[in-house]
Each structure stands twice: as C-alpha cells, then as structure tokens.
Specification:
five-stranded antiparallel β-sheet, four-stranded mixed β-sheet, alpha+beta
C-alpha cells in the first residue's frame, strides 16, 4: 500500500509539473487555429530589448524567419514580441519562446491544434434529425 501511495503522489506531481511547463500565460494566442489562416501569438513578459525574443516552432530550435516546420510556417521575423504563423497542415503544433530580461534567460512553450475550416463549420452546425415513424395501414 505504501508503494501505491508513493507512486500515486509522484504521478500527480509529474502531472502538475508537466502542465505548468505548457500554456502558462507567458504566450497568448488561440489553442485551436484554422488551416491557412495567419495567427499571431504574443509574449506577455517584456524582454530586455525589442529583439531579445527567439520564437521556434514544432520543437525545431533553429527555425527562422519565413521557414516552414511541420504544420506551421513563420511569417516575418521571429525575434519580436509577437510571432505570426500560418498553419500549413492539420494536427498538433508547439511554439517555443526564449527571451532575456533583467532576471535572466527564460523559456515557455505553447501547444495547440490546427483544424480545417470545414471541420470548424461542421462542428458548429451539427443538426440531429428525428424522423417520425408512420404506421402503414
């Protein structure tokens, strides 16, 4: 029983640690973005300088301006407070931010999903049809 209790609390602790690493408010933007529609993400903290941000996409830590990695394409610069991306494929994505401020070097990660426009429309307009059975005489 002691081993189970210890394992249970360790598992809960790792879950909280993992959750705190992603989508913690350092990066603002939509969790669900639409295929082909450019979307902007913003860093909430202020860095030391205007160009002291480094945005990377889909765990590719050397992604640069106007580069496509996996399901995302960086539009414009990746060193400003905001990042504009264009989704190029349906699926999950991640955005990684590194920045320097007066307190040192910081990182943050944002995870979300890319959906197709038709998927968004069909989910919003689902209608359930109920057919009435007629008795034959």
């Amino acid at each position: 029983m002691k081993n189970f209790t210890l394992s249970f609390f360790l598992a809960i602790g790792f879950c909280f640690y993992g959750y705190s690493q992603c989508n913690d408010g350092t990066i603002t933007g939509y969790f669900t973005i639409i295929l082909g529609q450019p979307t902007t993400f913003t860093a909430t903290p202020n860095a030391q300088c205007e160009n002291c941000y480094d945005w990377d996409i889909n765990n590719h830590l050397t992604s640069t301006e106007n580069q496509t990695i996996g399901s995302l394409k960086i539009i414009g610069t990746d060193t400003q407070k905001t990042l504009t991306i264009e989704p190029t494929a349906v699926g999950s994505f991640s955005i990684h931010l590194a920045y320097i401020d007066e307190k040192g070097y910081h990182t943050a990660t944002f995870m979300g999903n890319v959906v197709s426009p038709t998927e968004m429309i069909s989910n919003q307009n689902q209608i359930t049809l109920v057919k009435e059975k007629k008795k034959l005489k």
